[in-house]
Amino acid sequence: MRIAQVSPLFESVPPKLYGGTERIVSYLTEELVKQGHEVTLFASGDSETKAKLIAPCNKALRLDSESMDPLAHHFTLMEMVQREVDNFDIIHFHIDYLHFPLSRRMLIPHVSTLHGRLDMPDLIPLYKEYKEIPVVSISDFQRKPLSEANWIETVYHGLPSNLYKGSYGEGKYLAFLGRFSPEKRPERAIQLAIDAGIPIKLAAKVDTKDHEYFETVIKPMLNHPLVEYVGEVSEKEKQEFLENAIALVFLIDWPEPFGLVMIESIACGTPVIAWRNGSVPEVIEDGVSGRIVESMEEALCSIEDVKKLDRAKVRACFDKRFSAERMAIDYLEVYDQLIKTKSMSNINFVYKNV
Fold first, then answer.
1. What is the reported pTM?
2. Residue ranges of the Glycosyl transferase family domain (predicted)?
């Protein structure tokens, strides 16, 4: 199959540091190539891939100090996709709704995976207007605010099976991995560790918009002797960081569309203590790959519970549900469905006009 993957340009594929969407695009692209498909990746020029790379810009826009208008580069991206359209059997977009006016007029099959939160009133009239555009959700929960959208499937994210290895020690500390932001609630994770009398290590980045929150809420808590801030960790550093943890603490306070860090943790055999919010109940199997909680009291009690979980079974949850191979197979089924539907539509069109 000839497949185009269209990535955002803010980060390279894969990203050098933080960048969830671009990581998934990379894992999917490389797995499709591995399975023998002819894949073209539209992404920034500093991307690394075994697919054919078409680059609208030389490097990731977040790392380009000279880039002042990211939208301009994405318009160029869409024009380059249109120029190559006859070379594909299907186009898979990962750029939110930017391409909708273009893809509405395309004659070949296309699909869009929506990677972000959708609980914004502004999106309702947009998806009512573009109600024929086929879209894929990354969790069933993600769909709830937008019943107007043309949902055709939910495909959970996947990671390469060899990216992390299961490690089955007891763990020495609690772990927080992600961003220091109000919706991620790192202060809950810190407070949990202090209340339990257990060390916690935090690997996180601070976005500019969250700087005040970090300075006023988080920074004062970092002075506690049980708390260690290790900065932002690379892909290679995540293995050691997660495998040596008692549990990953994921006490979020927002409608998480998926939560990639949860499957990174269980891939290492490390259970997750997660707040019941967003996609959490779809990703974490309560009592098997972690514990799902609804209060700080429950979270405190769950620490002893996760210590007793079989870490080999935690890893098995990853292998069964969240591998890149499984993700690619699921998307190939989506592609086949859309190609067949488009083919039947073309046949009916010709028949009606004979």
1. 0.92
2. 167-296
